Amino acid sequence: MAKINLRPWREELRAEKQKQFVVMMLGAVIIAAGLVFLWKTDTDNRIAYQQSRNAYIETATKQLDKQIKEIENLKRQRDELLARMKVIQDLQGKRPVIVRVFDELVRTLPDGLFFTDLKKSGERLDIVGMAESNSRISNLMRQFEESEWFTGPNLSNVAAADNRRAGYSQFNLSVQQKTPEPEGEDK
Protein backbone atom coordinates (compact mmCIF):
# COMPACT_ATOMS: atom_id res chain seq x y z
CA MET A 1 0.00 0.00 0.00
CA ALA A 2 1.15 3.35 -0.73
CA LYS A 3 2.00 5.60 2.12
CA ILE A 4 0.48 8.99 1.96
CA ASN A 5 1.52 11.47 4.51
CA LEU A 6 -1.29 13.79 5.21
CA ARG A 7 0.50 15.78 7.82
CA PRO A 8 1.52 19.28 6.80
CA TRP A 9 5.24 18.57 6.92
CA ARG A 10 6.14 21.59 4.86
CA GLU A 11 4.48 23.92 7.35
CA GLU A 12 6.17 22.12 10.22
CA LEU A 13 9.51 22.37 8.47
CA ARG A 14 8.89 26.04 7.79
CA ALA A 15 7.83 26.57 11.42
CA GLU A 16 10.94 24.73 12.63
CA LYS A 17 13.19 26.81 10.36
CA GLN A 18 11.45 29.96 11.53
CA LYS A 19 12.06 28.97 15.18
CA GLN A 20 15.72 28.33 14.41
CA PHE A 21 15.92 31.67 12.62
CA VAL A 22 14.39 33.49 15.60
CA VAL A 23 16.74 31.68 18.01
CA MET A 24 19.72 32.56 15.82
CA MET A 25 18.59 36.16 15.56
CA LEU A 26 18.14 36.36 19.33
CA GLY A 27 21.59 34.78 19.78
CA ALA A 28 23.12 37.22 17.29
CA VAL A 29 21.41 40.15 19.01
CA ILE A 30 22.59 38.93 22.43
CA ILE A 31 26.14 38.41 21.11
CA ALA A 32 26.07 41.82 19.39
CA ALA A 33 24.75 43.45 22.55
CA GLY A 34 27.51 41.72 24.52
CA LEU A 35 30.15 42.91 22.06
CA VAL A 36 28.74 46.47 22.13
CA PHE A 37 28.77 46.35 25.95
CA LEU A 38 32.38 45.12 25.98
CA TRP A 39 33.43 47.74 23.42
CA LYS A 40 31.67 50.53 25.36
CA THR A 41 33.21 49.37 28.65
CA ASP A 42 36.66 49.24 27.06
CA THR A 43 36.19 52.70 25.52
CA ASP A 44 34.97 54.13 28.84
CA ASN A 45 37.95 52.57 30.62
CA ARG A 46 40.36 54.03 28.07
CA ILE A 47 38.74 57.46 28.38
CA ALA A 48 38.93 57.29 32.18
CA TYR A 49 42.58 56.19 31.99
CA GLN A 50 43.44 59.04 29.60
CA GLN A 51 41.61 61.55 31.81
CA SER A 52 43.58 60.35 34.83
CA ARG A 53 46.81 60.74 32.82
CA ASN A 54 45.75 64.24 31.76
CA ALA A 55 44.98 65.16 35.38
CA TYR A 56 48.39 63.86 36.45
CA ILE A 57 50.10 65.89 33.72
CA GLU A 58 48.20 69.04 34.74
CA THR A 59 49.17 68.52 38.38
CA ALA A 60 52.80 67.91 37.42
CA THR A 61 52.74 70.99 35.18
CA LYS A 62 51.43 73.15 38.03
CA GLN A 63 54.15 71.83 40.32
CA LEU A 64 56.79 72.51 37.69
CA ASP A 65 55.43 76.04 37.18
CA LYS A 66 55.76 76.64 40.92
CA GLN A 67 59.30 75.29 40.86
CA ILE A 68 60.15 77.48 37.86
CA LYS A 69 58.87 80.54 39.73
CA GLU A 70 60.94 79.55 42.76
CA ILE A 71 64.01 79.09 40.55
CA GLU A 72 63.42 82.49 38.93
CA ASN A 73 63.09 84.09 42.38
CA LEU A 74 66.27 82.36 43.53
CA LYS A 75 68.12 83.50 40.40
CA ARG A 76 66.91 87.06 40.94
CA GLN A 77 68.02 86.94 44.59
CA ARG A 78 71.36 85.46 43.53
CA ASP A 79 71.87 88.23 40.98
CA GLU A 80 70.98 90.85 43.61
CA LEU A 81 73.42 89.28 46.08
CA LEU A 82 76.15 89.14 43.44
CA ALA A 83 75.54 92.80 42.62
CA ARG A 84 75.76 93.69 46.30
CA MET A 85 78.92 91.63 46.69
CA LYS A 86 80.45 93.40 43.69
CA VAL A 87 79.61 96.80 45.15
CA ILE A 88 81.11 95.78 48.49
CA GLN A 89 84.22 94.40 46.80
CA ASP A 90 84.58 97.59 44.77
CA LEU A 91 84.24 99.67 47.93
CA GLN A 92 86.73 97.45 49.76
CA GLY A 93 89.14 97.76 46.86
CA LYS A 94 88.77 101.54 46.64
CA ARG A 95 88.95 102.18 50.37
CA PRO A 96 92.75 102.50 50.53
CA VAL A 97 92.75 104.58 47.32
CA ILE A 98 91.16 107.64 48.96
CA VAL A 99 93.72 107.47 51.75
CA ARG A 100 96.50 107.36 49.15
CA VAL A 101 94.91 110.27 47.26
CA PHE A 102 94.86 112.44 50.38
CA ASP A 103 98.40 111.38 51.23
CA GLU A 104 99.54 112.32 47.71
CA LEU A 105 97.71 115.66 47.96
CA VAL A 106 99.72 116.44 51.09
CA ARG A 107 102.99 115.34 49.45
CA THR A 108 102.42 117.53 46.37
CA LEU A 109 101.41 120.62 48.37
CA PRO A 110 104.27 123.18 48.34
CA ASP A 111 104.89 125.67 51.16
CA GLY A 112 102.97 128.92 50.94
CA LEU A 113 99.90 127.29 49.43
CA PHE A 114 96.77 125.74 50.95
CA PHE A 115 93.50 124.25 49.74
CA THR A 116 90.16 125.75 50.72
CA ASP A 117 87.83 123.37 48.85
CA LEU A 118 88.11 119.88 47.32
CA LYS A 119 85.45 118.23 45.19
CA LYS A 120 85.69 114.85 43.52
CA SER A 121 83.48 113.90 40.60
CA GLY A 122 84.36 110.61 38.99
CA GLU A 123 88.10 110.60 38.38
CA ARG A 124 88.38 114.39 38.36
CA LEU A 125 89.38 116.36 41.45
CA ASP A 126 88.45 120.07 41.56
CA ILE A 127 90.61 122.12 43.89
CA VAL A 128 90.12 125.67 45.13
CA GLY A 129 93.05 127.11 47.07
CA MET A 130 95.09 130.11 48.10
CA ALA A 131 98.73 130.73 47.16
CA GLU A 132 101.31 133.35 48.12
CA SER A 133 102.51 133.61 44.53
CA ASN A 134 101.88 132.30 41.04
CA SER A 135 105.20 130.44 41.11
CA ARG A 136 103.86 128.29 43.96
CA ILE A 137 100.81 127.43 41.83
CA SER A 138 103.04 126.41 38.93
CA ASN A 139 105.17 124.38 41.37
CA LEU A 140 101.96 122.61 42.51
CA MET A 141 101.06 121.83 38.89
CA ARG A 142 104.54 120.36 38.29
CA GLN A 143 104.18 118.24 41.44
CA PHE A 144 100.83 116.92 40.17
CA GLU A 145 102.33 116.10 36.79
CA GLU A 146 105.17 114.14 38.42
CA SER A 147 102.83 112.33 40.82
CA GLU A 148 101.94 108.69 40.23
CA TRP A 149 98.36 109.35 41.42
CA PHE A 150 97.48 112.49 39.43
CA THR A 151 97.77 113.64 35.85
CA GLY A 152 96.73 116.51 33.61
CA PRO A 153 96.51 119.50 35.99
CA ASN A 154 94.39 122.26 34.48
CA LEU A 155 94.44 125.74 35.98
CA SER A 156 91.18 127.51 35.20
CA ASN A 157 91.31 130.69 37.27
CA VAL A 158 93.75 132.79 39.31
CA ALA A 159 92.43 135.90 41.03
CA ALA A 160 93.54 138.22 43.79
CA ALA A 161 92.04 137.29 47.14
CA ASP A 162 89.81 139.54 49.24
CA ASN A 163 91.19 142.00 51.84
CA ARG A 164 91.31 139.46 54.66
CA ARG A 165 94.08 137.55 52.90
CA ALA A 166 96.14 140.27 51.38
CA GLY A 167 99.04 139.02 49.33
CA TYR A 168 97.35 135.73 48.45
CA SER A 169 95.88 134.66 45.12
CA GLN A 170 92.90 132.39 44.87
CA PHE A 171 93.12 129.68 42.21
CA ASN A 172 90.88 127.01 40.72
CA LEU A 173 92.59 123.87 39.52
CA SER A 174 91.34 120.52 38.27
CA VAL A 175 93.40 117.36 38.08
CA GLN A 176 92.67 113.80 36.89
CA GLN A 177 93.18 110.94 39.30
CA LYS A 178 94.90 107.87 37.92
CA THR A 179 95.41 104.48 39.46
CA PRO A 180 99.09 103.57 39.58
CA GLU A 181 100.11 100.16 38.28
CA PRO A 182 101.08 97.62 40.93
CA GLU A 183 104.80 97.42 41.47
CA GLY A 184 106.73 94.44 40.16
CA GLU A 185 104.36 93.73 37.26
CA ASP A 186 105.85 93.49 33.79
CA LYS A 187 103.92 94.65 30.77
TrEMBL record:
Keywords: Coiled coil, Membrane, Transmembrane, Transmembrane helix. The keyword Hydrolase does not apply. One of its GO terms (biological process) is type IV pilus-dependent motility. Pfam families: PilN (PF05137). Residues 57-91 form a coiled coil. It comes from the Bacteria. The keyword Iron does not apply. InterPro entries: Extracell_DNA_Util/SecSys_Comp, PilN. The chain crosses the membrane at residues 21-39. This is Fimbrial assembly protein (PilN). It comes from Marinobacter litoralis.
